[in-house]
Amino acid sequence: MGKTLVLAEKPSVARDLAKVLGCNQNGNGCIMGSKYIVTWALGHLVTLADPEAYGNKYKAWNLEDLPMLPNKMELVVIKQTSKQFGAVKALMHREDVDELVIATDSGREGELVARWIILKAGFKKPIKRLWISSQTDKAIREGFANLKPAREYDNLFYSAQSRSEADWLVGLNVTRALTCKYNAQLSAGRVQTPTLAMIVAREEEIRKFVPKDYWTITAQFNGFTVQWQDRATNQTRTFSKEQADGIVRKITGQTGEIVEVRKDMKKELPPLAYDLTELQRDANRKYSYSAKQTLNIMQKLYETHKLVTYPRTDSRYITEDIVPTLAERLRSIAVGPYARPVQGILRNKLSVTKRFVDNSKVSDHHAIIPTEQYVNLSALSTEERNIYDLIVKRFIAVLSSPFEYEQTTVRLDLAGENFTARGKIVRAWGWKTVYEGFGKLEEDGEEEEDDQSLPEIQKGQKAKVLSPKAVNGKTKPPARYNEATLLSAMEHPGKFVDNKALKETLESTSGLGTPATRADIIEKLFNTFYIERRGKELHPTSKGIQLVGLVPEDLKSPELTAKWEQQLALISKGRVSSAAFVGDMKGYASKLVGAVIANSEQFRHDNVTREKCAECGKYLLEVNGKKGKMLVCPDRECGYRKTVTLVSNARCPQCHKKMEIRGEGDNKSFYCACGYREKLDAFKKRRGDQVDKREVARFMSQQDAAEPINSALADALAKWKK
């Protein structure tokens, strides 16, 4: 009897599949059983070949050899993981293997991982697809009972391959053109460049912004505060000091009359469930986690703990087939702080509406919700617990009743001027009880008008006005992006476009990139030193600002990138030919290379130091990495980099701020902005009773690494707050 080969994306997932499928015998790069053999990739094992594979002339970077437009894109085995590819290929060609089950991640990239391995290995036997949204034993068993023919996912593969080939054609051609033309390490890409352009444009707005004075007018009436409102425009501010002072003079000592009291019962519906981007936004706002960090934590909750469903989703809805499982999911999370709200929901009949259940709004995967797996909160790290808390609270909130309140709006006539006040009486907290009355995390930049407690008020009531005053304020420039607001801008770039038809196109696609790729795009902008973080704010560097000035105009546009994503979505639905799309991309790459060559602008390094590169002798550039200052070589072929300072999580014993690590070897010391300084030896001695010595050694050795990274110890140091 023949065997079925199962291909997973990672070893951890392969172990879970093997357990359910009864495989317990370890082999070379696989786990075997009587009916199944489970093997795994290590992410991508196969990728598109580098330009050098298409001829010796591409080994050197020359402008005259561009654009590079191969007739057929070649696949190569990735050198670092070639041993595992060899093991997978050997299993595919075993005589007793009758069929293959693709069990890589259920999404565009997961499909690409498997199909490229299958193509490169030359596997020709029947193929089926496992498509599941969670990694629990139950989901795996149900998935294997409902395997689909792989051909149903052919278009998804064509979409993924087209995306990869387009990135190669545009990204590598423009990057080589920029680097050769300006003799600097410059790169551009179909998503990263428009994203960088948004950050640079915002910086330009802030730089040009001139604050304007405005005035608001308030007064006390019958024990509460009233605010002036322009009768014609409904604005509560005026840019004329003369008008503001005139209104204050006019109402001083006057008696006002209440001319309207309006009471409205209002309902605030629960928020929608999480997709990946919304979760990354909230995690950044609440915990300052980067988008990449949140995705990594989510992967652990999904793969290792099996507590949440597939993270890389762009939907905030579930499908009807999930509804019967909701009660079991609720029972599995009814522990600790979640027990009481869950019991409240289970006592009442679950009311699920189109606000949560809508098949038409789910493409590959439904919203992120808890699985039916029982949760042991103590088994989670602090970071995992924080993200899990966000997901569970949102899940409970979605299934809770609306927040209901009575809003009272009062309008006052005061010497012919219009004044208003607003008050709120909560009738039912509903879903907000999940968030202890604070509601969901507020959207950045949204300011809610303060509601106040109002006494009993009747229309026609009169009283003398007290303490009238004009309060001066200044208009504020637009806020710099942080990761939360940048993710929002990438998801909804339509606001940056004037053309109405294009705006609608942008809103109907996934925007710039996809939920799965946005975190990596932001990381890439940090790693190429185009942006840096100051506090929570993202600032473009001189290099980033100059690059946006050098790249062709339409490569900066969200319109173009979103159109590509729309085309890829249509390819995945079988409505557009992938060959036609890639052909268009070849023409586009040629056009972009021509635009770079024709540009007469100059690029200037303004961060050159007097220290020479140890490898090639060129003067090093000083840059701010994500975790501290670095010196990097400007020469693309050299690539030398050296860490100068590293922001650790060790806290200063005097002012409790995070300290920097500077120096090399035995001269390493901790420095604080307040002036405190401590040699590494003294630090180790002072903290020796609290830290594992091997951890300290590992931490310090990593400071010499090329990448500006923090280690496990650096994270552990965060707990040392004195």
TrEMBL record:
Tell me the keywords, alphabetical order: DNA-binding, Isomerase, Magnesium, Metal-binding, Topoisomerase
What residues does the Toprim domain cover? 3-136
Q: Where are the residues of the annotated region Interaction with DNA?
A: 187-192
Q: Which cofactor does it need?
A: Mg(2+)
GO BP, one annotated term: DNA repair
**Which molecular function GO terms apply here?**
DNA binding; DNA topoisomerase type I (single strand cut, ATP-independent) activity; magnesium ion binding
Q: SUPFAM superfamilies from the xrefs? A: Prokaryotic type I DNA topoisomerase (SSF56712)
Catalyses which reaction?
Answer: ATP-independent breakage of single-stranded DNA, followed by passage and rejoining
Where do the annotations place Mg(2+) binding?
Answer: 9, 105
Q: Where is this site: Interaction with DNA?
A: 61, 168, 176, 312
Which residues does UniProt mark as catalytic?
310
Q: Quote a single Gene Ontology cellular component term.
A: cytoplasmic replication fork
| Residue ranges annotated for the Topo IA-type catalytic domain, each copy included | 153-593
Q: What does this protein do?
A: Releases the supercoiling and torsional tension of DNA, which is introduced during the DNA replication and transcription, by transiently cleaving and rejoining one strand of the DNA duplex. Introduces a single-strand break via transesterification at a target site in duplex DNA. The scissile phosphodiester is attacked by the catalytic tyrosine of the enzyme, resulting in the formation of a DNA-(5'-phosphotyrosyl)-enzyme intermediate and the expulsion of a 3'-OH DNA strand. The free DNA strand then undergoes passage around the unbroken strand, thus removing DNA supercoils.
Looking up NCBIfam families in the UniProt record yields: PRK07726.1, topB
Q: Which family does it belong to?
A: Belongs to the type IA topoisomerase family.
> What name appears for this protein in its UniProt entry?
DNA topoisomerase 3
- Name the source organism: Ruminiclostridium cellobioparum subsp. termitidis CT1112
